[in-house]
Amino acid sequence: MLRIFIFLLAALCSFSGVFAEAVKIRLKTALPCEAEINENRAEYAISVRMSSITCFDSALNRHISLTKVQNMALYALFEYLDVPADQVLKCSRIKVLNQNFTKEKTTLECQIAKDSVHIEKVKRPQTRKAEAKRKTVEGKTAEILGGKSEVKQDKTLERKAFSSVLTLENDYAELIEMTVSACLEETVGIWKESETLTGLENRCTEAKTRFQKRFDELQKRIESERFLLSYYKKELSKTADEEAEKVENELKNRIKLLAEIRKITNTLPTLGEIPKSTDEINLFFSQKQKEAQTALKELMKKSQDGSFGLTAPEISKAETLLERIGNIYDLRLKNQRTFTLELDGHEIITLDESFFSVLTFAPELLAFPGAKLLPDGDKTVFLASGSAVVSDGTKPGKIREDMTRKAAVAKAQAELVKFLKSEVEVLEEIYTEYETLTINGRSSGITREEYLRDIQIRAKGLIRDFNIVLSWKSRDEDGTESIHVILARKFALEE
Questions:
Q1: CA distance 147 to 128
Q2: Which residues contact 333 (CB under 8 A, 6 or more apart)?
Q3: Cβ atoms within 10 Å of 339's Cβ, excluding its own
Q4: How far apart are CA 139 and CA 121, in angstroms?
Q5: Alpha-carbon torsion (487, 489, 493, 495), positive or negative
Q6: Angle, helices 58-80/168-189, rounded to nearest 10 degrees
Q7: What is the spatial distance between Cα 425 and Cα 418, in angstroms, rounded to a whole number?
Q8: DSSP state of 268
Q9: Neighbouring-strand partners of residue 101
Q10: What is the DSSP string of 104-137?
């Protein structure tokens, strides 16, 4: 009877839905890591608990930790099956049941079908570079050779394979590879969310700083490793420097493209370049337009032929960007031409050339009073126009002109206040009768009228710092003389 009971119990344990007793494996890596493996007739159930990577920014720590914990699951299986170092373990159909990342630990629960696990003799010597270059054709696969593993995810963009071994030096070598791979993926993705040239340049600059910081932190981690021989520290530091340079070069290619585009946008004519003769102005702007179009076409060819190392989606994005830049360039040339012709025949009193570029953004200010906010590189320009008629009187002409000019300035200042007030009134529907404002850490109630009045008071104080960037005289057909002014001030974006 006892024998029958033992036989039934053994049969029950071997049944495909029941796992045998769990086997615990401690993986001696740079990061403390433990794995637990259960198996039944059909599959292996693996759970891994690993200390998280902490030397990078939170996003990269998460990315690398979740990738590495999968590699550790594969190595645990390699250890569990006691695969000889000269043989390779291959498996597919890895099913992730649960994975979690926190600042302290990363965990994984997965299942690997037994019929997807194969152990084969090594046909040729495997090197680290060969491992990195190996491609996975279909599905999710993993290979482990002498403790090295590489993982590919199904239905995702193809990415570089990683290796994971149970020695400190190779563990850090893998960390370098993972860091490089993550940086390169981000480099390709830089274009996805940027719609403007300035946005792209800013993202590239931020990425360059972020990548450098990552490799600096990686170097610090290698140097601070107590159980790593100095020889390996030097070798790993050298590798990290080489890989950091590789990432920097990839980013430089994209920055180089942006610099070429910026070079074209900077060929917009300055005030001094524009001919004074009205007859020559049209020919001058037509020639400028042709030069820019030719340069943009050449740049388009370079972006397509691999000169900048762009991926297919990036090439498409570059084409769209170059077309948009061309349209903006044409519009700016048209505005410059309009601006120049509008001033032609008028007596220019003041013209600040540093504001010439931004003034041509809104040539209508020459004909109509008003106020505008316009971009100018990394700053915003707030400007407004006003005019006044030179009155007849007994006072000398110079005094009358000064008085008229002051009147024109006052009208431009009024336009500034009016603009600020209207911006507040646009939000009137979401205001309640009383608003709670926090000033110097204190909250106070204020009515809408008081708030608008406060805006006007602040605006009047603000406009004192505005300068006259353009003023000119005009004379109507009936002989009426007027003086026009444009006031402007540049603000940093954080002001």
A1: 12
A2: 268, 269, 285, 288, 289, 292
A3: 22
A4: 23
A5: negative
A6: 130
A7: 10
A8: S
A9: 106
A10: SEEEEEEEEEGGG-EEEE--S---HHHHHH----
Q: Which two tokens stand for residue 237?
A: 């530091």
pLDDT for the residue numbered 101: 96
Distances from the Cα of 471 to the Cαs of 249, 404, 417, in angstroms?
49, 12, 20
Q: 119 with 81: CB under 8 angstroms?
A: yes
H-state helical runs in 344-431: 356-359, 397-425
What is the C-alpha separation between 121 and 88, in angstroms, rounded? 6
DSSP state of 493: T
* Per-residue confidence (pLDDT) for residue 469, from 0 to 100: 92
Strand order in the sheet with 148-151: 118-121, 87-92, 141-145, 148-151
Phi first, then psi: what are they for 150, rounded to 5°?
-140, 140
Per-residue CA distances from 208 to 183, 187, 201, 218 (Å): 10, 9, 11, 16
Query: Which residues are paired to 99 by β-bridges?
Result: 108
**DSSP 3-state assignment of 147?**
coil
Query: Which residue has 């000019």 as its token pair?
Result: 405
What confidence tier does 474 reach under pLDDT thresholds 50, 70, 90? confident
Instruction: Give the tens place of pLDDT for each residue, 169-201.
Output: 888 888 999 999 999 988 888 877 777 788 888
Cα of 70 vs its chain's centroid, Å: 28
User: Which tokens hold the place of 334?
Assistant: 């048209």
